[in-house]
Write a structure and sequence with these properties.
Rossmann fold, 5-stranded parallel β-sheet
C-alpha cells in the first residue's frame, strides 16, 4: 500500500513537501483505480465534519468518501454558529477529540483551522478557509496527472479573481515545479504573503511564476483554470454589476483557450456560466470540471488514509 511520510494534519499547501504531494497524488489514483483495496481502511474510525459555510461537493465527497473507506462521518452544520462564538475554538477542538478520530473543517477563517489543530489531539483536515483550499488543489493536480504524462512539464494558468483556490494552486504548483501564471484584474491580485511563499518555493523547485494584470501576457498554456468572480455574499446588484464590468476581459472562452493553445479548462464549481466561463466551453470536451469534482473524493480519501488508515 502506498504511504505518505510524516503527515500529521492536512492544513495548508505550504506545509507540504514535494514528495508528500506526489505521494498523495499517487495514492489518490491508486484508491480511484482499486477502491476495494481500501474499503476497510477507516474501519472503526469516525470523522467529525464542521461546516461553517454551505457546501455541495465538499460535504458529499467527504461523507461518501469516508463511507467508501469503511468509516463513519458526522456532519456538524451551521446550527452551531461560527467557531469561537458559542464557545472557544480550543474547547470545541478538545471536545471533538474526545469522540472523533479526525476533524474535517470548512470554515471562514484560517485561524480557526490552526486553533483546531493546535488544541485538538486528532488529525485536522482543512476543507476550505479564507486563505487555502488544499483539498481542491490536490484534486486538481490529480486531474492534471491523469491528463498529462509529466506534471513538471505542465503549464497551468489561473485567470480571474485571486482567492483561496488560486492561492492553493499557486503554492502546490510552485512546490511541485509546475510553471504557473496568475492573471487577475488590478486590485484583485493574490495575497502578497502567499505570493512571496510561492516565489520562494519556485526558486527551489524550478517552477516559473508569472503574476500579471495583463490578459495579453497569458502566453502558451496547457491548462487554464477559472473560478467565480462573485463570492458568496457579494450578490448585491450594484456590486455585481461593477465586478462584471471589471472582469469581463478575463472571461475564459474558446477564443482564449485557442490563443493559449490550452487543451483543458478547469473550474472548481459552482460555475457562473457566461460570466467567468462560457456555457459552451464549460460543457465542452475540453472541460475537466467534473473529473476534478470526482477527484475531490479520491484526493481526500488519500489524505484520510494517510492520516488514519488501518495497517
Amino acid at each position: 500500500m502506498t504511504t505518505v511520510k510524516d503527515l500529521s494534519h492536512y492544513l495548508a499547501d505550504d506545509q507540504l513537501s514535494k514528495q508528500q504531494i506526489l505521494d498523495l497524488i499517487t495514492l489518490a489514483i491508486a484508491i480511484k483505480k482499486t477502491p476495494e483495496n481500501y474499503s476497510q481502511a477507516l474501519a472503526g474510525k469516525s470523522v467529525a465534519m464542521i461546516f461553517e459555510k454551505p457546501s455541495l461537493r465538499t460535504h458529499v465527497s467527504f461523507d461518501i468518501g469516508i463511507n467508501k473507506l469503511g468509516g463513519h462521518a458526522l456532519y456538524l452544520g451551521q446550527q452551531n454558529g461560527k467557531l469561537g462564538e458559542r464557545e472557544r475554538v480550543s474547547d470545541y477542538a478538545k471536545n471533538l477529540s474526545c469522540y472523533a478520530d479526525a476533524i474535517v473543517a470548512r470554515v471562514f477563517e484560517n485561524n480557526s483551522i490552526e486553533q483546531l489543530a493546535q488544541h485538538g489531539s486528532v488529525p485536522v483536515i482543512n476543507a476550505l478557509c479564507d486563505l487555502y483550499h488544499p483539498c481542491q488543489a490536490l484534486a486538481d493536480f490529480v486531474t492534471l496527472a491523469e491528463n498529462f504524462s509529466d506534471l513538471e512539464k505542465v503549464k497551468l494558468a489561473y485567470v480571474g479573481d485571486a482567492n483561496n483556490v488560486s492561492n492553493s494552486l499557486m503554492l502546490m504548483a510552485s512546490i511541485l515545479g509546475v510553471d504557473f501564471t496568475l492573471v487577475c484584474p488590478e486590485g484583485f491580485g493574490p495575497d502578497l504573503n502567499i505570493a512571496n511563499k510561492a516565489i520562494a518555493f519556485g526558486k527551489v523547485s524550478g517552477a516559473k511564476l508569472l503574476l500579471t494584470h495583463d490578459i495579453t501576457e497569458l502566453g502558451s498554456q496547457d491548462a487554464i483554470y477559472t473560478d467565480t468572480w462573485i463570492s458568496m455574499g457579494d450578490e448585491d446588484p450594484a456590486k455585481k454589476s461593477a465586478i462584471l464590468a471589471t472582469f469581463s476581459p478575463y472571461q475564459v472562452n474558446h477564443k482564449l483557450m485557442a490563443k493559449a493553445g490550452a487543451s483543458i479548462v478547469m473550474h472548481c464549481q459552482p460555475a457562473h456560466l457566461e460570466e467567468e466561463i462560457t456555457t459552451k466551453l464549460f460543457d465542452s470536451e475540453m472541460s475537466v470540471a467534473f473529473q476534478s469534482a470526482e477527484n475531490r473524493m479520491w484526493a481526500q480519501n488519500a489524505v484520510l488514509v494517510t492520516l488514519l488508515g488501518n495497517e
